[in-house]
Amino acid sequence: MTELSSAATAAAAGTTGVKLPGTTPRKTPRGYTPGLAAVNFGVYLALLTPVMVSMAFKIQRLDPVNTEGSLGLVMGVGAAFALIANPLVGRLSDRTTSRWGMRRPWILGGAIVGLGGFVIIGAATSVLVVMLAWCLVQASMNAVLAAANATLPDQVPVSSRGKVSGIVGITTPIGILAGSFIVNFLPGDFERFVVPAVIALILVIVFVLTLKDRRLTEKPATPFTIGTFFGSFVFNPRKHPDFGWTWLTKFFVMFGYAGIATFLPLYLVTKFALDEQGAVGTILIANLASMAAMAISAPLGGFLSDKIGKRRPFVAIAGLIMVVGLVILAVAPSIPVVIVAQAIIGLGAGSFLSVDLALATEVLPNPDDVAKDLGVLNIANALPQSIAPAIAPSVIALGAATPLGGYTTWYLFGALVALAGAVLVYRIKGVK
After folding, report:
1. Per-residue model confidence (pLDDT) at position 242
2. Of residues 176, 149, 221, 161, the one with CA closest to residue 27
3. Degrees (nearest 5) of the Cα angle 286, 287, 289?
């Protein structure tokens, strides 16, 4: 991001109340940080409750014979739509000239469409309908994330982004925990999918009504073409190598954290012979342990990162801690050990999430395409959730033919991928 180049530019911004493209804010607006955190919490509550708990049991009821294959298909195809929506909406958000702002129309619109998708999933009686509705949900809710998180460089000075990123980062485990808690008290599939989405929409409405959104007063000079569309998903790694290495680091770490999480309910049912309610209760306790660890590492990581002025060590340490947790999870002999493993994974994930967004904003190629570039980086969040479920049935099947067992092999594979992310972060040269 660049500073305002002249007093005239500063005066224009102050007079119109519109933050101009390419400018760096001097102070974070009051109420912005808790508002952004609330939106992220709501989206993750709505999206990750199915990923962590609800979807596995929904698919198991609809297709008890081929549960793993159908679950992998639904989650994989849906995540592919997230892959497209995030950078595309980021690009469109950067070009939006609405009087209501650049980001707010996409944030609110995405949440409304997402709620409709969750209603369809809750009422669905076939795997095909669930898959189609999940695609709609992934596209719309990732549109919310793309536009909402693009407000961070619009609203927050560079020196404060680690702190804000840490606060926002902790919303992921809180969303997972809240979802795990809520489903224990909801009687059926419909409520398990719709109630979290309603909460998300309410939080989004509060945020968009209070956000002093950046506005474009003139349409972009270049039209939005097919080339522009495909440009929303690519970047030049030779021209911007730090951006490329950041993308790979994010992809590998998120594969280890989020990509493998979908199969935890089936792992508990298969290995420990739990029934559905027992698995849901175990996931709640495990997520509580994970969140408690994240509550320590996320804000601490963000604060120390700003204080020390370094991002890479926190990402590397986070990856290594997650590797330890995944290995323990893979060989866990009992439920208490599963819970300990989840706590260790949460400790590492908290450190990663606390500095991830702050690091990303420091390697963006173009200050006038902030949302588009963050959308490209967010592909690294969505892609593991597409690739992992797609390959999981094959990895689990191969592992089942070995003494290790299917799910043990799957979690050890996730540990190797996360380890790659911990190593690759030091290929980023422009950030300490």
Report:
1. 80
2. 161
3. 65
In a domain, residue 13? The reply is no
Q: Write the DSSP assignment of 176-194 as a string of letters.
A: HHHHHHHHTT--SHHHHHH
pLDDT tens-digit map of 163-172: 777 777 777 7
Tell me if 298 is assigned to some domain. yes
Sign, CA torsion 266/421/172/40 = negative
Distance separating alpha carbons of residues 251 and 377, to the nearest angstrom:
9
Describe the crossing of helices 104-123 and 189-210 by its angle, rounded to 10 degrees: 170
Residue 295 burial (10 A CB sphere; 0-12, 13-18, 19+): middle
Q: Which residue has the tokens 């990663």?
A: 352
Which tens digits make up the pLDDT trace of 57-69? 899 899 998 888 8
CATH number (domain holding residue 232): 1.20.1250.20
- The gap between the terminal CA atoms of the chain, to the nearest Å, is 18
What integer is the mean pLDDT of 105-112?
93
* Number of domains the chain contains: 1
Q: Which domain holds residue 314?
A: 29-215+227-427
**Structure token digits, residue 191:** 């409520």
CB 79 within 8 A of CB 382: yes
Task: Look up residue 426 and give its two tokens.
Answer: 């030091």
User: pLDDT band at 265, cuts 50/70/90?
Assistant: confident
CA angle 139/143/147 to nearest 5° reads 170
Which helix (H) or strand (E) is 395 found in, with range? helix 370-400
Is 104 a domain residue?
yes
Residue 39 CA to residue 336 CA, distance in Å, equals 33
Rounded Cα distance between 199 and 206, Å, is 11
Does 321 map to a domain? Answer: yes
Residue written as token pair 């999870």: 329
Q: What does the block give as tokens for 160?
A: 């404060």
Structure tokens at 307: 């204080």
This prediction's pTM: 0.70
At a CB cut-off of 8 Å and minimum separation 6, what does 227 contact?
A: none
